[in-house]
């Protein structure tokens, strides 16, 4: 429910002065850790936490920017995954069985694609799809 933190070399780029930090909306040193991935689909970056707050927060009277740890707790960990999936229209690509496109949208790249392929195959066997 929460991104493990080293920080790794990649995670260090979540903070300024790196371009990734800017893309994530992380403007201050420490924002990378503060707004690390949380939830069933790892919501990452202050920009995404703000969007989730603006769209979902009012329904629950919650500000996820000021309380980012809530994203890893139920029910928000599930809600953030559904919100992320819907706002990025990921189902369209899942229905096409396009694992590469789904992975790219969620992960920003293809890191862990082989594991995802293995677990998807196993899930399809169990679910008989």
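Q: What amino acid sequence fits the structure above?
A:
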């Amino acid at each position: 429910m929460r991104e493990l933190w080293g920080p790794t070399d990649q995670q260090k780029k979540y903070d300024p002065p790196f371009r990734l930090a800017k893309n994530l909306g992380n403007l201050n040193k420490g924002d990378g850790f503060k707004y690390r991935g949380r939830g069933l689909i790892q919501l990452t970056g202050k920009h995404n936490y703000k969007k989730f707050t603006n769209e979902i927060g009012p329904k629950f009277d919650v500000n996820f920017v000021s309380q980012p740890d809530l994203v890893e707790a139920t029910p928000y960990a599930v809600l953030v995954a559904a919100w992320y999936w819907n706002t990025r229209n990921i189902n369209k690509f899942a229905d096409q069985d396009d694992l590469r496109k789904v992975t790219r949208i969620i992960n920003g790249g293809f890191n862990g694609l082989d594991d995802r392929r293995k677990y998807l195959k196993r899930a399809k066997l169990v679910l008989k799809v």
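Q: And what stands out in the fold?
A: The chain has one domain: 9-127.
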